[in-house]
Amino acid sequence: MMLQGKSAIVTGSTSGIGLAIARAYAKDGANVMINGFGPADAIERERAGIEKEFGVKALYSGADMSNGAAIAGMVAEAQGAFGAVDILVNNAGIQFVAPIEEFPLEKWDQIIAINMSAAFHAIRAALPGMKARKWGRIINTASAHALVASPFKSAYVTAKHGIAGLTKTVALEAATFGVTANAICPGYVWTPLVEKQIPDTMQARNMTREQVINDVLLHAQPTKQFVTVEEVAGLALFLCSDAAKSITGAILPIDGGWTAE
């Protein structure tokens, strides 16, 4: 149990990648604060389930990731409840797809706020404590789109490229304090969010389910397989280990070979 006695915040963790990371940390002994949106009863079921299954303390924060003051408040709440925030995973993100000349201004602002600025606010609040204790792990969920672009995703690609730059900067600032900062860059991950998009895409493109999966979703991934949330969580767990203490400022693809092309 390498994370015994450690505490983590994972944003955007009521489902998908974030929840898998939070559960991986809890399984390894860390107290966790989850965050995100969804039905209150479903969130409470996940929170209580983590406590019961892994014997750690699990909290939920409904902090709005587009609000800097709320994010700072979430970090302060976790520090008060756990005594420290040792691990910060900035995972919250949203997506919107449109040509740039038609991109809604409010969607641009929202994506930049939630996908990029939220990480800045959380790191700004959590880093002083990590530096003081001479140990910390900052992990930003970026995307293959931190390394390459796709059409019609101007805000998302911009935010994820920004996350890569933020990660490198924080890594340099924290390098002598026992704190690492890295970005994980998944390709297409099999999550409920992706699964729900398939029927609409089948209809819009007049394709079968298999065609949508292989010709649309997995077109960019040479393995022709989805990345799993467990694989992403495994990498996030490894980055917290002593074996990973010299890995910092890294932009780490986990994308089935997408960015190798």
Please provide a written account of the structure:
This protein is an alpha/beta fold and 261 residues long. The chain has 2 domains: 7-187 and 228-260, Rossmann fold; 190-226, no CATH class. Helices cover 48% and strands 13% of the residues. It is built from 8 helices and 7 strands; from the N terminus they run βαβαβαβαβαβαααβ. It has helices spanning 16-27, 40-54, 68-82, 105-133, 154-174, 192-205, 209-217, 229-238; strands at residues 7-10, 31-35, 58-61, 87-90, 136-141, 179-186, 251-254. The protein has a 7-stranded parallel sheet, sandwiched between helices. The mean pLDDT is 96.
Q: What do we call the CATH topology of the largest domain? A: Rossmann fold
The biggest beta sheet reads: 7 strands, parallel
Q: How do the helices and strands follow one another from N- to C-terminus? A: EHEHEHEHEHEHHHE
Strand order of the largest sheet: 3-2-1-4-5-6-7
- Write the CATH homologous superfamily of the largest domain: NAD(P)-binding Rossmann-like Domain
Work out the number of β strands.
7
User: Low-confidence runs (pLDDT<50, min 5 residues)?
Assistant: none
Strand content: 5-15%
Total helical elements: 8
| Rg, alpha carbons | 18 Å
Main CATH class of the largest domain: Alpha Beta
